[in-house]
Amino acid sequence: CSFLPKFSIHIETKYEDNKGSNDSIFDKEAKDLEREVCFIDIASDEIPERYYKESEDPKYFKSQKTGRGQLKEGWRETHQPIMCSYKLVTVKFEVWGLQTRVEQFVHKVVRDILLIGHRQAFAWVDEWYDMTMDEVREFERATQEATNKKIGVFPPAISISNISMPSSTRSAPSSAPSTPLSTDAPEFLTVPKDRPRKKSAPETLTLPDPAK
């Protein structure tokens, strides 16, 4: 994240022709990291209601070209062909006091994104099943270009003006006051030397005699 140097998200992907049974697929990449294994079922796991579309629900979708679907309970044990997409997600937010909560929140958001994306990939199979690799690359390029136009990509604009400043002040934004280089306190904060100091307590304290 360019504007937050202490915040990063790294996702590595590997594919294998199995049902998610390889628990050691990322042992080399994450041998020194604390990991939590999370299984994602594109048919059974719930997604946020605002993203739900019946046409993209694997429980109801049936592919016209491949005959795949509908994915009912226990589909991973019966459907062929089958492939697992393994994801190694590393989130770092190195800000004291917020690190754990932010990292946990980002992991949850990433999980939802992966779940929705893989549901769509299955439900859109009839659109990409006959595509060549060149057509896939062209589709990726066109999608990236359309996304950039939608969200807007603007180069950073920096304006610099030459303004002569007194030697006793340092340069600062026009909205900020100039800060003197001198370490002496300003005049209005200086305590007069001849002003008598206030005493916080009397010099002597007289207590009543309990015998009287």
Automatic annotation (TrEMBL):
GO cellular component terms, A-Z: cytoplasm
Organism of this sequence: Steatornis caripensis
Annotated spans, Disordered: 164-212
Domain of life: Eukaryota
Compositionally biased spans, kind Low complexity: 164-186
Protein name: PITC1 protein
Annotated Phosphatidylinositol transfer protein N-terminal domain residues: 1-145
One MF annotation (Gene Ontology) recorded for this entry: phosphatidylinositol transfer activity
